[in-house]
Amino acid sequence: MAEDIEEIRRQKLAKLRNKAETGGSEASTPKSPSKPIHIDGGAELSETFAEYGLVLADFYADWCGPCQMLEPIVETIAAETDATVAKIDIDANQQLAAEYGVQGVPTLVLFADGQPAERLVGMQDEAQLRSVIEAHA
């Protein structure tokens, strides 16, 4: 968790430096992190939406077998696509899960500019996830 927060701080600092160097003009959307970001609460999720244009939210549970099988695929997606992957533990974030209508895990919701664009429930293969992301990139 502390590593994730530190990574977000580094990214925000780089963004601020870039803004200062370019005279305040906004650069393009920052490059998505190469590892999934663990989200703890609605505020963190909102910050992630604000910072990145395309966010794949992975609603999961530690006890869920398909979620564990999906984890390496989601990590590959984070490393190799333009989407930022946000991992959300439904047990620790029940309110967020309810807010986004998560009734089963794993549930993947692709957000484009902060708005839900696609919803995938259950185990997904890498090709399917890449296809969905490319359609909204």
Automatic annotation (TrEMBL):
<feature type="region of interest" description="Disordered">
    <location>
        <begin position="15"/>
        <end position="40"/>
    </location>
</feature>
<dbReference type="InterPro" id="IPR013766">
    <property type="entry name" value="Thioredoxin_domain"/>
</dbReference>
<keyword id="KW-0813">Transport</keyword>
<protein>
    <submittedName>
        <fullName>Thioredoxin</fullName>
    </submittedName>
</protein>
<dbReference type="InterPro" id="IPR005746">
    <property type="entry name" value="Thioredoxin"/>
</dbReference>
<dbReference type="Pfam" id="PF00085">
    <property type="entry name" value="Thioredoxin"/>
</dbReference>
<dbReference type="InterPro" id="IPR036249">
    <property type="entry name" value="Thioredoxin-like_sf"/>
</dbReference>
<feature type="domain" description="Thioredoxin">
    <location>
        <begin position="14"/>
        <end position="137"/>
    </location>
</feature>
<dbReference type="InterPro" id="IPR017937">
    <property type="entry name" value="Thioredoxin_CS"/>
</dbReference>
<keyword id="KW-1015">Disulfide bond</keyword>
<keyword id="KW-0249">Electron transport</keyword>
<keyword id="KW-0676">Redox-active center</keyword>
